[in-house]
Specification:
The complex is a heterotrimer of chains A (156), B (638) and C (465).
Chain A: H1 4-29, H2 36-39, H3 58-84, H4 87-92, H5 96-122, H6 143-154
Helix pairs in contact in A: 3-5
Chain B: H1 3-23, H2 29-56, E1 62-72, E2 75-83, H3 85-108, H4 115-134, H5 138-156, H6 163-194, H7 199-206, H8 214-230, H9 239-242, H10 248-257, H11 262-269, H12 271-275, H13 278-299, H14 305-325, H15 329-356, H16 374-388, H17 394-409, H18 411-436, H19 444-449, H20 455-470, H21 485-490, H22 495-500, H23 512-539, H24 553-559, H25 564-612, H26 617-637
Antiparallel strand pairs in B: 1-2
Chain C: H1 2-17, H2 26-43, E1 50-52, E2 57-59, H3 61-81, H4 92-111, H5 115-133, H6 140-171, H7 176-184, H8 190-209, H9 218-225, H10 228-253, H11 258-281, H12 286-307, H13 310-340, E3 342-343, E4 346-347, H14 357-360, H15 362-376, H16 382-396, H17 400-426, H18 438-456, H19 458-464
Antiparallel strand pairs in C: 1-2, 3-4
The chains are: A mainly alpha (156), B mainly alpha (638), C mainly alpha (465).
Chain lengths: 156, 638, 465
């Protein structure tokens, strides 16, 4: 009789073996005529240029973070839904179980929504955040003087 | 009796100290004196209330825990106060006499620049002194003990612009440290023997020891070394006469009435231990007797008014220890009380004289002051009679009681005591006559200035004079058909000691006629010396020769205090200095070698270590991995 | 339990408070939150051991004492932060919010009864700290420190998680009691090796968090790079929580295999003491010296762990408090002084910044001196008793040799702690006016007062527990 860990070991071994076998079989079956074009990295048809380790725009990370947040939420919702729908428990507690589970999930999602709201209010959801730069020039000549000059000579 | 009220007794002077100590530059002079004095008077009032409560509630001793203080292994040292007959008596003396001296100081120190500082120190001193007597274990007593030593140091060197005064302050401090070492060793031995420092626990355990157990004798001797330092007994007495460099109220409060009696307090407090060690008590008695006569003989030829009183104090403390040696604990306490009254009075009177004489202290330059300073004269006279032991003034009863016990215990010591009392009477009357009788011998300017002191100074004098006159009636001996209130009151303190050593507490075997005889002898001796002094200094009007005059060998010896200071200087100070010089030149080399090697090693390894801190995360992670691998390898595979 | 719930809620509230126009409301509000949390903490005092969240969290007096120290330190740190008013680039609401969240993590670490709770606590605390370390966005060193901290922290977390996994594999449970039950009755066999490996890996992860050698490398760089206020937070709150967690872990689950692990902790303690103390001697920057000093104090606390007894538990509590108070004072003074004296626009955090401090501001010099004395373990300060309790608890266990090393190392400590005292009292410096806000002063004086109070009467504190 093998223990639970034994099964895991078996899985690991069989996984490795399978991978090895497939690569080996492919090695023997495929034709092998390499050229430069074929050996280059596949980049959606683009020509790969320069180093792959370049700086990405920081906004990618923020969006990714928010995405991960809600993905985790979704992952969490599935097991929750299974327990939530447990008829036995609902019957045993005379329906209170359902409300309890519902309230808990509301709190959970509520907190996440607060987080989303915070990010939104901070403006992290806007991809482009143009900051209007109003140039200020300190000039000894007052601004309305220019206007007068423009008025006088602009019409001509 | 509420605990919070009890805490106030030491706390009020501490608060006074903090206010005056922090704000002495800004608080006006008038307020400083009032704050300082109020703190002490209030604490006196609370002490009286506590005393009444104590008597009213059946005189049950009680320990008031304040907080857990130190807990180390099995040793538990709580911070708590003990209220019993002994601590209450001490409380009354300290706060009572303390209040009077504070009032006096308002007048005496009025012209001094350091007025605020003075009151701050005085309050701090009272705080520590109260801690000393209130504490319920030896460690708290030790804190108080060290604290009063510190304050004594600060106040002796109060006029710190004078190098000599600073040196005497240092001398007092160092001498006391020698004693403190003994005290500390005593405490350690107590901890090692009993595993506790709480009085109640120590004494309860001590009762089961046999008489003359070597451990108990050792403890007693160690503690007595401490008492020697603080209470100025041979061989550690030389600091007290020098301590007169401080302001006179300080001499009265610290070096006459309270601090120097701490040693007696300690012995009485440890009476269970001492009663178990008669051989230690024998030493206490002998040292006390020797000190009594030795100091008195020096006092005979001193010409500085405060020095005479200082030697007198040393001598009187000797009497108290002599009494303790004869297991007359109550009698010694009695003498502590009466001595506090009349010696404080003498010092304050001397202060009043010095004040009037524009800081002149040499009695050869005084004389005839009784007309100019009538109140000072009368109070001083009362105090002199009291200390000389002439009935019915306070000193008679207490001294006589000690002498009676000593007589029973050891006849030789009694003879010494009587001779001492003869000398006491002589030098005190000599002092009185030279100061207040005859013609004025000072400068013209001084004579012009002579004036009676202000009321703030004379009122304490009068109160103390009344106490010196009638204070003895709290302990009238049975032979005089009185009842000894004090002895009755203190009797429960010795219950444990009585059980441990019943022989020491047997009632007196002296018949009344024998007691009358003893009293007669001491009174006669005192009166004879007084008459001799009168003849010498009033009728013949002789004045001690100036320092420049030639003296006979014996006179010179006594006048120079038997050259004890010089002896100490040669034997201890010089040899210590030589030794330290040798150690300095030789030891320094080896110590430096060791120290430098340690420094080199440390800085070398620090340099090595610095190199590991490369700043690169990769290196750090690599080092971590090495560590992890090492640990796993060590613990799992080896 | 209350402070965890309260602080989570308050953290969110603080974030949204950041939208309000007035920035001045933030600091009073967060201080109020902390006071409420402290009050909530002590509501459960003496209520006996209580279990919450499906037995994942345990509340007893030890937990509450640690919580109290953490919240008190946090209160002081928040107060001396001054609401980050002086830096226009700062985001006070986010900083405070993150610190409140990290406190939640710290409290979880203190009270955990379940390894998952421990892991969550550690992560909540650490992630917030990674961000706060790099909060000074325009400072390259701050950024570098944050990245280093994050990378190495993630690395250590991996080990920790692996350790937990192995422990689960060996014992079939995450609960401390069940692991304890298993470890006490374990036969030597393959499972015992899994348990040992799991324990070691988990310990390694935790030792990283408390910066014990040889996992300390991040500490000097991160402490130096992070803004001083967050360094203070890291070296007090994080360290206290880390040791509380370690103590709970070892005393709650592994007393049965004490013989196995104590020598590991002892060896690491000695190494940590050596690295911390010797490393500190060669520093010229006060802040970096304090980082090394933090490492050495971790060494002392590890000694208490090797003893693992009731007295050593009290010793850890007392030591954490003493250390936190002094560290807050030291960093507090450093912040004030370095702000006034700058080199090239950056705060001067070297020793020479303190030259002549006693003349410029006697109060600050005094506060600094007391805190240094306490850190060095000079009597009449709380630090002395902290060390004393730790040494006695180790000596009672019969581990004398480690105490000898620790005492030797603490003499080395005197060298570098006294350097700054010498600078401030004996060296001449330019007379710069150092402004101290009244509230700041109150906090520093309070911490100094407590240091001296516990130094004079350590029994007061012991009476409380």
């Amino acid at each position: 009789m093998i223990s639970d860990f034994g099964y895991i070991l078996l899985f690991i071994i069989s996984g490795l073996v399978l991978l090895g076998v497939m690569l080996l079989v492919a090695k023997f079956l495929r034709p092998d005529n390499p050229n430069e074009e074929k050996l280059s990295t596949y980049e959606s048809g683009e020509d790969p240029m320069g180093n792959a380790q370049i700086q990405f725009n920081i906004r990618f990370y923020i969006v990714a973070l928010i995405f991960v947040l809600f993905e985790v939420e979704l992952l969490f919702l599935f097991p929750w839904a299974v327990v939530f729908g447990n008829e036995e428990l609902i019957a045993q507690t005379n329906g209170a179980w359902g409300w309890f589970a519902m309230a808990e999930m509301t709190v959970f999602i509520g907190i996440l929504i607060l987080g989303l709201a915070y990010a939104w209010a901070k403006g992290y959801l806007d991809w482009v955040r143009p900051k209007q730069q109003i140039p200020e020039i300190k000039s000894p000549v007052p601004a309305d003087m220019y206007k007068q000059v423009n008025d006088r000579y602009g019409s001509k | 009796m509420s605990a919070s009220l009890l805490i106030l007794i030491p706390l009020l002077p501490l608060i006074g100290f903090l206010i005056n100590g922090i704000g002495f530059k800004t608080i006006p002079k008038g307020a400083v004196g009032i704050i300082g004095t109020l703190a002490v008077v209030a604490s006196f009032v609370i002490s009286v209330m506590t005393f009444n409560d104590f008597v009213a509630s059946g005189s049950q001793p009680l320990v008031v825990p304040l907080f857990e203080w130190i807990t180390v292994g099995d040793l538990r040292i709580p911070f708590s106060f003990q209220i019993d007959q002994l601590s209450l008596l001490m409380l009354m003396i300290i706060t009572g006499v303390g209040s009077l001296i504070h009032i006096y100081s308002i007048g005496y120190m009025h012209h001094d620049e350091g007025f605020g500082k003075f009151f701050a120190y005085l309050n701090l001193f009272l705080f520590f002194m109260l801690l000393l007597v209130l504490g319920s274990n030896y460690v708290i007593m030790f804190i108080g003990w060290e604290g009063v030593g510190l304050c004594s140091y600060l106040l002796i060197g109060f006029w710190n612009k004078n190098t000599n005064y600073n040196n005497t302050a240092r001398k007092a401090f160092i001498m006391n440290r020698v004693g403190d070492l003994g005290f500390l060793l005593g405490i350690f031995t107590i901890i090692a023997t009993f595993g506790s420092v709480e009085y109640t626990e120590v004494f309860a355990q001590a009762s089961s020891f046999s008489l003359e157990d070597p451990v108990i004798v050792t403890i007693c001797l160690f503690l007595f070394i401490g008492a020697m330092g603080k209470s100025a007994q041979i061989p550690l007495y030389t600091w007290l006469p020098d301590a007169m460099a401080g302001p006179t109220p300080v001499s009265a409060l610290i070096h006459a009435a309270t601090m120097v009696t701490a040693g007696i307090y300690m012995v009485i407090r440890s009476n269970v231990l001492y009663s178990l060690a008669p051989s230690a008590l024998e030493i206490v008695g002998i040292i006390g007797g020797l000190t009594a006569i030795f100091a008195a003989s020096i006092g005979l030829l001193q010409n500085d008014i405060k020095k005479v009183l200082a030697y007198s104090t040393v001598s009187q403390l000797g009497y108290m220890f002599m009494g303790l040696g004869a297991m007359a604990y109550s009698a010694s306490m009695f003498h502590v009380i009466t001595h506090a009254f009349f010696k404080a009075l003498l010092f304050l009177g001397a202060g009043s004289v010095i004040h009037a004489m524009s800081d002149e202290q040499d009695i050869r330059n005084m004389g005839g002051l009784r007309k100019k300073l009538p109140i000072t004269f009368i109070t001083f006279l009362i105090a002199t009679i009291a200390i000389a032991g002439i009935p019915p003034f306070a000193g008679f009863f207490s001294k006589d009681e000690i002498l009676a016990h000593v007589f029973e215990h050891n006849k030789l010591l009694w003879v010494i005591g009587v001779i001492g009392s003869l000398m006491t009477s002589f030098y005190m009357f000599r002092l009185l006559f030279l100061t207040f009788f005859g013609n004025f011998r000072g400068t013209h300017e001084q004579e012009h200035h002579l004036h009676e002191s202000p009321a703030s100074m004379t009122i304490p004098l009068v109160i103390l004079a009344v106490l010196s006159a009638v204070g003895g009636f709290i302990g009238v001996p049975e032979a005089l058909h009185g009842s000894h209130h004090l002895a009755e009151f203190m009797s429960p303190l010795y219950d444990a000691a009585r059980q441990a050593n019943p022989a020491g507490f047997e009632p007196t075997t002296l018949s009344h006629s024998e007691e009358y005889l003893l009293m007669g002898v001491s009174v006669a001796v005192a009166l004879i010396s007084a008459v001799v002094a009168y003849v010498m200094y009033v009728q013949k009007a002789s004045v001690p020769a100036p320092d420049s005059a030639e003296k006979s060998g014996l006179q010179r010896l006594v006048y120079n205090k038997y050259y004890v200071d010089e002896l100490y200087d040669n034997v201890f100070v010089k040899s210590t200095k030589t030794l330290s010089n040798i150690l300095y030149s030789f030891g320094e080399f080896f110590i430096d070698l060791f120290v430098n090697a340690a420094v080199r090693l440390t800085s070398f390894s620090a340099k090595m270590l610095r190199k590991t801190q490369t700043g690169s995360t990769g290196d750090y992670v690599f080092a971590m991995v090495l560590g992890i691998v090492a640990i796993l390898f060590w613990k799992l595979l080896l | 339990m209350y402070p965890i719930v309260l602080l989570s809620f308050f953290g969110i509230v603080t974030l949204f408070l950041g939208f309000s126009k007035s920035k001045n409301i933030l600091l009073p509000a967060t201080l109020l939150f902390l006071i409420i949390a402290l009050a909530g903490n002590f509501l459960e005092w003496n209520k006996g051991p209580l279990l919450y969240f499906y037995d994942m969290l345990r509340v007893d007096n030890v937990t509450l004492a640690f919580n109290g120290i953490i919240l008190l330190s946090a209160f002081m740190i928040f107060a001396i932060s001054g609401g980050f008013q002086d830096n226009p680039d700062s985001e006070p609401a986010e900083y405070f919010g993150l610190m409140l969240f990290s406190l939640v993590g710290a409290l979880m670490m203190v009270g955990f009864q379940h390894l998952i709770m421990l892991f969550i606590g550690v992560e909540i605390l650490s992630v917030a700290m990674y961000v706060l370390t790099g909060s000074n966005k325009r400072n390259l060193r701050s950024n570098e420190a944050a990245l280093k901290y994050f990378l190495m922290g993630a690395f250590a977390t991996g080990f920790m998680l692996f350790g937990i996994t192995l422990l689960y594999g060996a014992t079939g449970s995450f609960k401390l009691e069940q692991i304890q039950g298993f470890a006490s009755n374990m036969q030597v066999g393959s499972e015992s090796y899994i348990l040992y490996a799991g324990l070691l890996l988990l310990l390694i992860g935790m030792l990283f968090k408390v910066s014990a050698a040889p996992f300390h490398f991040w500490t000097p760089d991160v402490y130096e790079g992070a803004p001083t206020i967050f360094t203070t937070f890291m070296s007090t709150v994080v360290k206290t929580a880390g040791f509380a967690a370690l103590f709970r872990l070892l005393s709650g689950s592994f007393t049965g295999v004490y013989g196995f692990w104590w020598i590991v902790i002892a060896a690491i303690a000695v190494l940590t003491l050596l690295v911390g103390n010797i490393g500190a001697t060669s520093q010229n920057s006060f802040k970096r010296m304090l980082a090394y000093s933090g490492i050495s104090h971790a060494g002392y606390l590890l000694i208490a762990l090797t003893a693992l007894s009731k007295p050593s538990q009290n010793a850890i509590i007392f030591y954490s408090l003493a250390y936190s108070l002094s560290t807050i004072c030291a960093f507090g003074v450093l912040m004030l002084v370095s702000k006034e004296k700058t080199i090239g626009g950056q705060p001067n955090e070297y020793y020479d910044a303190f030259n002549g401090l006693a003349k410029q501001n006697p109060l600050l010099a005094f506060v600094l001196t007391v805190s240094m004395l306490s850190l060095a373990g000079i009597p009449l300060t709380a630090g002395f008793w902290g060390k004393f309790f730790i040494f006695t608890s180790a000596a009672e266990r019969g581990i004398i040799w480690i105490t000898v090393i620790a005492v030797l190392m603490s003499t080395v400590g005197i060298y570098y702690y006294f350097r700054v005292i010498i600078s401030s009292y004996l060296k001449e410096g330019d007379l710069v006016k150092i402004r101290v806000a009244p509230f700041y002063k109150v906090i520093l004086v309070l911490a100094t007062f407590l240091t001296i109070l516990f130094g004079l009467a350590p029994g007061i504190f012991e009476g409380l527990i």
